[in-house]
Every structure is written in C-alpha cells, then in structure tokens.
Amino acid sequence: GLPLAFPTGARFVLAPGTREVVNAGAFKTAVEQLQISGQVNGGPGRQLSKLQQATDGPLFIFSDFQRNSFSAKSLEGIDSTRQVYLVPLASENSPNVFVDSVWLDDAFVRAGEDLTLQVRLRNGGGQAAPDRQVKVFIGRQQAAVFRASVLPQQTQTTQVRVRLNGVGVQTCRVEVDDAPVDFDNTFFFTLQPAASIPIVEIAASAQLDRLYGNEPLFVYQYTTAQSPDVQKLSGANLLILREAVSIGAGLREQVRRAVQAGATLVIVPAAASNQASYAQLFRESGVGPVQWQPPVQGAVPTGQEVAMPSAQHPFFRDVFANINQRAAMPKVVPVLRWSRSGTDVLRLRDGEGYLAGFASGAGTVYVFAAPLSAPYADFAQHPLFVPVMYRLALQSYQQEQRPAYRLTEQTINLRLPKAAIAAGAQEQVFRLVQDSAVYIPAQRVQNGTVRLELPPTLQRPGFYAVQRAGRTITTVALNLDKRESDLRRYSAAELRQLVGANRPNIHVYELEQGQTVAARYKATQAGVPLWRYCLWAALACLLLESVLLRWPRRKAEAVPQSAAA
Question: Cβ distance 517 to 5 under 8 Å?
Fold first, then answer.
C-alpha cells in the first residue's frame, strides 16, 4: 500500500529486487514476487547504502531488524538531508528450534555398520520450546525420531544411531516440527561411506604387508627408496618411509608434494643413514630441529621404556577399552631427538618424544625416534604396535566433502576422484544442478581439490548435484544461514534509542492496529488533503449567506404592513 501515499506518477525502486526505477504497478508486482533468500544481503544497513545510490527520494526500510544484522553502525553514512523511515515488522516473541549442525563421531564412515550421528538443536527465539518432534531421514527412509525441549538461546545435542547402505553419496535430512516458524525446519546433509585408504611403504623390503593387507579398509602397496614408483606415491593417503639409508632428491620431492596436498608421511629413521638427506627432508617438511644421537652399543634391553599412553589423548580415542598401568611397555634405543613437535603421540619414560606429529602444508608428518627393527626397538612385537599403525592410517583419511554447507559461504572445496578431473575433461566445467535449475560457479582445480564459488543467484536450500560433462560427480547439501533463525530483534522503542536525537531525518514508524504505512506517511508528512473540506466549507458559506440575506428582508417588509393597518 506504500504507492497510495504518493501521486499517481511517482516512481519507485525496490531493493533487494530489480533495483530499477519503476511505476506503482510494476513496484507492486515486484513486491509480490519477493521470496526468502538464502544469500546474505548485509541487512538493513547495507540496503540503506544501496538505496541511497539508486534514488534521491524518501527511503522506507521494512525489516524485522534482527540484532545480529542491524546496529547503530548501520545508520552511519546516511545523508542528513535524506528522509529515512524504519518500519519494524510486527512479529511475536515465539520460540524457533532449528538444526545448528550435525556431525559423526568417526570421520571414517563404514557402510553396513551403526554410526553415531550427533544432532545439535538451537532455539533462536525468546521463549522455551517444549517437546519438539525431530525426525532423521537417510535417503527416503526414516532412520530415527526423538523429542527435544530447548530453552531460549540455548542448544541441545542428541545422539542417534544410523546406518548407511551402499557406497554412493546418500542424501539425508533432519526435520523439526516447529510451527508456526517453519522456514528453517529442514536441515539437509549428505553422508558417504569412506573409500579404501591407499598405503605405500617405502623401504628396502616389504614388511608391513601382513599388517595392512589383512584389513579390507586398506590398500597396501610397496616401492623402494632407490627407484620409487611416482604413480603409487601420488595416489597414497599414507606414506611410510621406513629405515631408508639415503633419501634421494626425486623421492624427497615426491613425498613433499604428497604431504603438501594432504597426505600423511611417517618417517622411521635408519640407524646408519645419510643424515644430510634426512635433514633436508625434515627441513622441507616443517619438522623442528632434530639431533642425531651417537651410536649405542647394545640391544633393546639397554634401551628406554616407552611411557604408558593416555586414553584421553585424541590419537588414542576409542582405542583402549581399559589400560593396565602395570603392563609391560616396549623398549627402544632412540637415534633421534627433537626439541618441539605439534603433537606428542608417544613419549619415553624420561620425557623425550618417541612418536610425534608435525603439521606440514595440508598434511602431517609423523617421526619415530628409533628404527622399528632390532636391536633398536621391540615396538613391532608389542600389542601397541598394531593399533598405533592402524590409527596412523585412519587419520590419513581425507574427507572428500563436509556433510553440509551454508548458502552464505562464498566457496566450497571438494576433493573429487581423479577420474572426475582427468585431463580429457578439462574443457568441461562443473555445474550445480537442482531439478531444472542449473548454475555454473566460478571454479578452480588444484591438487585434486575443486574450489567452487557459489553464485549470488543460488538462493534455495536443498541438494545440488555437482555435474561435469553430463555426469554427476557428487551431491552437496546447502542450507540457510543459521543467523536468520535467530529471531531476536529490535523493538520500535529500541530503534529510536539507536537512532538518537542527532538524526532528525530518520523516523521510526510503530504502526497501530490496522494502520498502514501509506496512511501514516500521509498523515505525518504529506498532510491530510483539505481541498475537499475547503470546497464543502465554501458551499456551506454560500448557502448560509443566501439564507441570511433573505431572512432580514422578509422581516422588514412585514412591519410597514402592520403599521398601515
């Protein structure tokens, strides 16, 4: 009804929208076509800035003025000669339960096994939300249902057991029964069973094949340090450089590239080795200063005992059911020592490190302080050896994509299969497809990772297929920005306090029951049209004048007739 407050020939600009100068009819049509957008628009403050550039007339801002998107800074930069009208939309202080996030306890997902899915709910409203029903769907099948009560501005996390069948990406969702606020009641996410983990042992002979070859999760391969297989090294998640006497420049460059791209490198030093080649590898891999220990005469019994690991250490999570503090630990004769590390996995009794991790590029480098072979260690014969080596392999797994993304994220990064980004398909671009809608984002492929920039026109939450050359590579889940679900807002009185007395050109309209913005504006700014009243008043005056002129004349004529009689 805003156009009713202005003359028939007035022109309007709508933002967000066409942002073109249109007549009243086109403006009304554009308003009716507005929809909820998943893209952030900067809030009312940014809209004020854009509208100021588009027109020089009065500005009307219709908004709920959420506290997380509007502040006093939003009013800075407004021309003091421009009349601005803030119109807070009336809304009840109702509860609003929505899904804040979902995640799995174990990043390595196995098909056909029970998984623990964590669902975190948040109440973005101002009132408590009692007994809300929540449903979890894996594909089209309902996998779990539970009820939750969430206090205002609080969270609640619930664990549910789910199971994946098949090997492809599975579309999942969480639905919350939370009327009447329902724009954010569905949260979309994807789950995919993990692929096998390629492991390459680089050594003089293959000794870890029995360790990893018996587990179907792992794909074990072997190559020598003198003539390394480049193809094996480039495709591995875990590289185990075991007791190599010397590390050539070609091998050093290959493992460095793999680690920079996200692979995990485990270095097991040799007792008699080319220390200069190792030093260069340590330096290029980001490993701290390393000191070589002088050769020690003797065998394992003369070595130091490894300290009991802590069950609270993230590396050993879910590894030990219980720990016997009196259990015999392996003994080692260290040939390396370091002063610092990113993560100490195992230590010796004297406090020095035995197995430590160092961040390097997108990957991690783990270093053992001693060889695995006798007479420098009996760790390979200890029961702790298998879980430690398995844990190194599992931690090398690279998650291909996150379960869910937000529409407000500028970019998403996906690790795709090599076949999807093969050289023969370089001329084909990646597309995001949802039903009949097709989007071509700006994109870049680097080290097996595809970086996609979400286009501003992509505003609808849901599942989007990532396609190339007409073939679906994967599916991603996009959701609304969770800041939109926080219903805390400024009231009209609070907006007036934000505006202050120093901005007389900014007005806050608090509409009364049944009142429209057009009527309020016409009453306070355009004024009440009085010409009709003036016309009726003039006619009334003319009528009264004619009556008054006739009434005295009749009275004056009657008096002489009476006197003559």
Answer: yes
